[in-house]
Amino acid sequence: YQVPNWSGGWFRVSDKGQMEVTPTPGLHAPLRSIIDDILERGESLPVILRFPQVVAGRVKQLNEAFGKAITEYGYTGHYQGVFPIKVNQRRMVVESVAAAGYEYAHGLEAGSKAELALCLAQRMHPDALLCCNGFKDDGFIKLALWGRSLGKNVVITLEKYGELDRVLKQARALGVKPALGVRFKLHARGSGQWEESGGDQAKFGLNAYEMLRVVERLKEEDMLDSLVMLHTHIGSQITDIRRVKVAVREATQTYAGLIAAGAQLKYLNVGGGLGVDYDGSKTTFYASMNYTLGEYAADVVYTVQETCKARGVPEPTIISESGRALTAHHAVLVMPVVDVTGPTRNLDTLAAPSEDSHQIVKDLADILGNLSARNYREMYNDAVGDKQTLHNLFDLGYVTLDDRARGEALFNAILRKIAKLIQGEKYVPDELEDLQKVLADQYICNFSLFQSLPDNWAIQALFPIVPLDRLNERPTRQGTLVDITCDSDGKIEKFIDLRDVKATLPLHEPGTKPYYLGIFLMGAYQDVLGSAHNLFGKVNEAHVTIRPGGRYHVDLFVRGQKARRMIESMGYEEPMLRDSIEDQADAALEAGTLTPEQETELLEDYGEELLGYTYLEYEEG
Ligand code: PLP
């Protein structure tokens, strides 16, 4: 499962074969124990385990990495981070970032009015920035300006030239001096899936001509000192460090150009993009990155300094809006496997064809009996042909359902035997390359992909998935994962691998004890983008801190959305639902299809489900 490669030291496998969270050296706790505890309290799975110490640890790592680079290069400016809350607006996350970031004056970024309202209420260091990005109306601008009156270091980023007039008008009306940033459309591009965020066709930002017009306009207004920040962003999850360097160089040249035009910028904002190594391969593959946090900080600081020196301009305070890198590691979705299906399961009871079986079934049985390492390729082709014939004959009514069942089972047994024969072979014929996927089990997991892992569905994002225990036991099955939505897209068929993407995940045969899988590194973007497909709602959450001696404490348990909430979000009202069921039950009582006791029980059950968790609730164990 490559745990040391992707975990960044926040998780490890214990000697007992269990996944443990390790928020600081010396502190560790097995996830399985936390889950058992939660179940003992009568709560249900799936659950997201959130570790505030991991968020705090990431904030510290980021700030210290920049601090180290600044000291090493003798950089004369500072570094200040800004957390874009769109990455995860959960209270625990925002408050953890704000608290851990206080000593570093780590700020927040809001991209909408609602996000700004949330950010303004946070306790922040007086120097910490509150960046307002995104398109803005008068209400957004006014709220941002009020933020300055509250003593917060609010900077309004101009995303379009037209926003300048709007801001100046509101600032005049309120009598508040604005602090402005300007987002520049770099021609440099990111790498990976968010490459389109930069470049001329980017959705946000001003071009060079527009930016210089902003400077001229502010000069005319005698407000040039209001322009404090140059903002850039070339996309999230930049996989290649060279792209970062190229973009930072262009951004710094632009900064120097603005200084030459008379601006007195204080901040150079290099945006987000700091990656997360989801697959641990340390490559430029979209789920990875070919650099470390330390290298990122060093390269940004060095490139800014080098360019500033060459242009003879002051070294600015460097801002990064790292979001993914701060929050991805802190959350793990834990889901129980509720069932396993698959083409090779239950084949051990496969009986030999009888006298009456159709000849095609007997042929398949012969292939199975004669299969060897010498002839498997030929036999495979014969078997595929026979299966096709079996289906054609069934469609025409010449093969019974019983023969079809037996024939299909024999075909699957043939594939299973071939898979064993070619296991470990260097050369695998083209037609057999997908065999493992075809034969894979489907592990049915109690979760909704659309609610909990939307990026896997939408953009094939990869996340490490690992059983919570039995990790000292070699897995004997290969599986794909399916969720409990009634949507055939609700499945995971791509898994991390150091060299490629794997089509199946090695898994254990679930035994008598419940088998739990953890989806790791899912703390960035997933919570926010999730949707209510099939009315599966937000999942339960446990906020857990780890204490010395392998102990831990569940600080807060937040129950997921109840069925009633999900139904109401679609415009229905609970009393209306209850009335309708009551009327129908009364009618059934009159018609004699329900007894009075049954009616009472039915209404109780209905009410209980309305108040219940939207996920499957089996007795665990
Ligand atoms: N800043 C801006 C303007 C963004 O659009 C984004 C997200 O794409 C971020 C910061 C956060 O980026 P990341 O999560 O890659 O750090």
CATH topology of the domain at 75-322: TIM Barrel
Count of DSSP helices? 21
The CATH superfamily of the domain at 75-322 turns out to be Alanine racemase
- Largest sheet, described in full? 10 strands, mixed
From the helix content, strand content and strand pairing, which structural class follows? alpha/beta
CATH top level label of the domain at 75-322: Alpha Beta
Tell me, rounded to a whole number, the average pLDDT.
95
Low-confidence stretches: none
Radius of gyration: 30 Å
Measured by DSSP, the beta-strand proportion falls in 15-25%
Total strands: 21
Helix content percent band? 25-40%
- Approximate shape: globular
Bound molecules: pyridoxal-5'-phosphate
What would your notes on this structure say?
The chain is an alpha/beta fold and 621 residues long. Among the domains are: 75-322, TIM Barrel; 347-436, Methane Monooxygenase Hydroxylase, Chain G, domain 1 (Up-down Bundle); 563-610. Helix content is 40%, strand content 17%. The chain has 21 helices and 21 strands. Strands 4, 13, 14, 15, 16, 17, 18, 19, 20 and 21 form a ten-stranded mixed sheet that branches. Strand 6, helix 5 and strand 7 form a beta-alpha-beta unit. The two termini are 25 Å apart. The structure holds pyridoxal-5'-phosphate. Pyridoxal-5'-phosphate is lined by residues 84, 87, 133, 233, 236-237, 271-274, 321-325. One of its GO terms (biological process) is L-arginine catabolic process. Keywords: Decarboxylase, Lyase, Magnesium, Metal-binding, Polyamine biosynthesis, Pyridoxal phosphate, Spermidine biosynthesis.
